[in-house]
């Protein structure tokens, strides 16, 4: 059994941020459960582009408002509490926030916690975990 709080991972290597967002990686590949689970906060009035070429991501919005743009089709989707989106086609996407947004995210395959977004917003292909 694994029990963790976001308070205990704050300020550790599981707490990753850039200028627009902060991701608290609660469950990672090394935990051996086949997925990773994150709490992500995106700053108000920001624009972030992502492209998970090697991962499927499910996102559940629990706080804040904004817009999700599918950069491949141009479709826009309003985001707010209770909205879920699933990037099951590895879509390049943009999140534009109106207010600060907090989201709960699941990645498959799980991230290790050491990934860094490249210039396209993607993570590298996963490596096997020892």
TrEMBL record:
<dbReference type="GO" id="GO:0019491">
    <property type="term" value="P:ectoine biosynthetic process"/>
</dbReference>
<comment type="function">
    <text>Catalyzes the circularization of gamma-N-acetyl-alpha,gamma-diaminobutyric acid (ADABA) to ectoine (1,4,5,6-tetrahydro-2-methyl-4-pyrimidine carboxylic acid), which is an excellent osmoprotectant.</text>
</comment>
<comment type="pathway">
    <text>Amine and polyamine biosynthesis; ectoine biosynthesis; L-ectoine from L-aspartate 4-semialdehyde: step 3/3.</text>
</comment>
<dbReference type="Pfam" id="PF06339">
    <property type="entry name" value="Ectoine_synth"/>
</dbReference>
<dbReference type="InterPro" id="IPR014710">
    <property type="entry name" value="RmlC-like_jellyroll"/>
</dbReference>
<comment type="similarity">
    <text>Belongs to the ectoine synthase family.</text>
</comment>
<protein>
    <recommendedName>
        <fullName>L-ectoine synthase</fullName>
        <ecNumber>4.2.1.108</ecNumber>
    </recommendedName>
</protein>
<dbReference type="InterPro" id="IPR011051">
    <property type="entry name" value="RmlC_Cupin_sf"/>
</dbReference>
<dbReference type="GO" id="GO:0033990">
    <property type="term" value="F:ectoine synthase activity"/>
</dbReference>
<keyword id="KW-0456">Lyase</keyword>
<dbReference type="InterPro" id="IPR010462">
    <property type="entry name" value="Ectoine_synth"/>
</dbReference>
């Amino acid at each position: 059994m694994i029990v963790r709080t976001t308070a205990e991972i704050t300020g550790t290597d599981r707490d990753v941020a850039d200028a627009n967002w902060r991701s608290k990686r609660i469950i990672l590949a090394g935990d051996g459960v086949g997925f990773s689970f994150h709490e992500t906060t995106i700053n108000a009035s920001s624009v972030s582009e992502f492209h998970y070429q090697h991962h499927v991501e499910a996102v559940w919005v629990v706080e804040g408002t904004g817009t999700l743009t599918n950069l491949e089709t141009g479709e826009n989707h309003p985001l707010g509490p209770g909205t879920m989106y699933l990037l099951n086609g590895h879509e390049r996407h943009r999140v534009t926030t109106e207010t600060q947004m907090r989201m709960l995210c699941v990645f498959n395959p799980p991230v290790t916690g050491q990934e860094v977004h490249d210039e396209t917003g993607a993570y590298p292909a996963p490596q096997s975990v020892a």
